[in-house]
Amino acid sequence: MENGNGSASDRDTLFMLSGVALMVFGAGLIISNPIVKRYLGQFGLGNLAQAALPDLDRYLKLRSM
Fold first, then answer.
1. Sequence-distant (≥ 6) Cβ neighbours of residue 2 within 8 angstroms
2. 15, 21, 25, 31: CA torsion to nearest 10
């Protein structure tokens, strides 16, 4: 219940940000696992990122116009 000063909104924002922080922390724990690193190395995640960079650069140039 909101008591007029926006405390419900602040509480919802705090819950949302803490959820995002937990997801980032969990993803970091998963990616730091040596088995997962080996699997991602075989998958070629670095090649995927290199292929996406020109498209991202082109998008940012169009957006700045």
1. 8, 9
2. 120
Q: DSSP class of residue 65? A: -
11: left (phi over 0), alpha (psi -120 to 50) or beta: alpha
Residue 64 in 3-state DSSP? helix
Q: How confident is the model at residue 14 (pLDDT cuts 50, 70, 90)?
A: very high
Q: What tens digit of pLDDT does each residue of 47-61 get?
A: 766 777 787 788 888
The Cα 42–Cα 34 span in angstroms is 12
pTM higher than 0.90, yes or no? no
Q: Distance between CA 27 and CA 17 in Å, rounded?
A: 15
Yes or no: say if 60 and 54 are a contact pair by the CB < 8 Å rule: no
